[in-house]
Amino acid sequence: MIKVIAFDLDDTLWAVKPVIIRAEKRLDEWLSLMVPDLKYDVTGMRELRHELVNREPELGKKITELRRRMIEQALRLSQIDPGRAFELSNDAIEIFLAARNDIEMFDGAQDAIQDLASRYILGALTNGNADINRLGLNHVFDFAFSAEQVGAPKPAPQLFNAALEHTRTAPHEMIYVGDDPQLDIDAAKRIGLHTIWVKNAERPGPGESRPDETIEQIGDLPAAVARLHERS
């Protein structure tokens, strides 16, 4: 019997590209206001990002801290006092995260989540830094784990194992819903979870495994879950 439904977030429940573009624009505007002499804009900081990851590979698994460090480094290279640079970088990351979690869900997503929450435990497993508390989804999602929290991004198994441990369920009792054939569907299948693929034109696949259900849009999810539930 299926008890838990876990979701990928970005590009499964909303389009992430416009969110990141808008968040970086807000960050740029804030930094320009606070530090008029800053030598780097957000685009220019990407070179600093590569330098940081080359020096400290573990930062590649910590996307929020990596962005904060990137901002801090840009501030230091702009002759900002180290203490002030640290303080400003923490304020800057809050500006970014507030905008990064200002999303518009795909049509039907909110209704689908509300419908399923009445019958299943719901949760989120993401490689990104979307936050169910900032998103206002903490009243319907029982749990959320990010790659940064568990120390490894999908397709590694840590996120799925964290969800199974948290909910005390077996793999065959959980469905994972995602848009990426490799990072979501194949990775979840290797753990033994049921999978539902939300088709994404930018990630057409195929992966190495076949999803248990495929849907064209997230609003079709409750019907797909019902079919899977009947077969399980």
Model description:
With 232 residues, the protein is an alpha/beta fold. The protein has 2 domains: 4-15 and 104-231, Rossmann fold; 17-100, Four Helix Bundle (Hemerythrin (Met), subunit A), CATH 1.20.120. 48% of the residues lie in helices and 12% in strands. It has helices spanning 17-34, 45-55, 63-77, 82-100, 109-117, 132-135, 147-150, 158-167, 181-191, 221-231, and strands at 4-7, 121-126, 143-146, 174-178, 194-198, 213-215. A 6-stranded parallel beta sheet has the order 3-2-1-4-5-6, with helices on both faces. α9 links the parallel β4 and β5. α3 crosses α4 (82-100). The chain is elongated and about 65 Å long.
Question: In CATH, what is the class of the largest domain?
Answer: Alpha Beta
Secondary-structure element pattern, one letter each: EHHHHHEHEHHEHEEH
Q: Main sheet, how many strands, which sense, barrel?
A: 6 strands, parallel
Mean pLDDT: 95
Structural class: alpha/beta
CA radius of gyration is 19 Å
Based on CA inertia axes, which overall geometry fits? elongated
Low-pLDDT residue intervals, each spanning 5 or more residues: none
Count of domains:
2
Estimated helix fraction: 40-55%
The total count of helices amounts to 10
- Biggest sheet: strands side by side, in what order? 3-2-1-4-5-6
